[in-house]
Amino acid sequence: MAEARIDKWMWAVRIFKTRTIAAEACKKGRITINGSLAKAARMVKPGDVIQVKKPPITYSFKVLQAIEKRIGAKLVPEMMENVTTPDQYELLEMSKISGFIDRARGTGRPTKKDRRELEDFTAPEFMDDFDFDFDFDSEE
Q: Among 23, 31, 68, 119, which has the highest number of CB atoms less than 10 A from its own CB?
């Protein structure tokens, strides 16, 4: 039965852009194989279910073929099956929608409006009506 390293397999089926990122995800505990945490060198075989945590959701993939060589995007469905539950995709949609609304006032980088209000607040008011015509000639 064919087996492949988990980091190589995830890179080969295009779950991660590079093998380094795939190995890093394993190290950080974001990858589980059949419910148990996986190290980068762990072997996967057909039938294994891999869960990948990419906040805010957890993707689930079923291994159909164990490969270590990167393949074209059109061949990916022959190598794995996406078994992610629909409620996970609902979480993704909710986070996309709430991402724009949820920024609490005063957190993060100031908006243009915030910046203008700050400039108006800090600009000294008396500078506009100051008369700079001093008479330096008169020395008593």
A: 31
Beta pairing, strands 4-5 & 80-82: unpaired
The 3-state DSSP class for residue 57 equals: strand
User: Token digits for 48?
Assistant: 């294994």
d(CA 4, CA 47): 13
Written as six digits, the tokens of 41 are 């060198």
Alpha-carbon distance of 80 to 64, in angstroms, equals: 5
| Angle made by CA atoms 24, 59, 71, in degrees to the nearest 5 | 70
Is residue 78 within 8 A of residue 20, CB to CB? The reply is no
Cα(23)–Cα(18) distance, integer angstroms: 9
CA 35 to chain centre: 23
Residue with tokens 């980068």: 40
Instruction: Answer whether 0.70 is exceeded by the pTM.
Output: no
For the stretch 28-79, pLDDT in tens is 999 999 999 999 999 999 999 999 998 888 999 999 999 999 999 999 999 9
